[in-house]
Amino acid sequence: MSLQEIISNHVKQAVQASYNVELDTVEFQATRKEFAGDITVVIFPMLRFIKGNPVQIGETIGHYLAEHVPDVKAFNVVKGFLNVEINDAYFTHLFNNILEDDTYGFSAINKNDNAVMVEYSSPNTNKPLHLGHVRNNLLGYSVAEILKASGKKVYKTQIINDRGIHICKSMLAWE
User: What pTM did the predictor assign?
Assistant: First the structure.
């Protein structure tokens, strides 16, 4: 369960316990940089169901969260916005779970999707390598791996020994 779902469920419980009102949804937004907090609950949409001062409603919900949710470290209310601070232990636990999951961020290959071919450069055997070759190879390979992680069947291909005007010049010089 995500952090937003956990907080949302507890905010609904807080409103039910404190105001005897059942909320369908809880609105969130990113906490502004100048305020402490990791996630912000917007109180204003609740005013349709709960009559009162948004700051006081935010304080009530904040106290409920601080008492009933072990992951909540602190809170502050700014003009109807409840900024909730989360314990560092929550993030440490989350990152440790991600670390242990080798398939985190990868989608299963969908058999019904068309395959994708990613063509990217290969070094020309007739010219010296330079940083642009490395950059293009890394970009092409990275795009292919990102597509593969998103669940696409990916074929990687390179143009090997691409002959261009430089080969023609070399042949003319040889003659």
Answer: 0.65
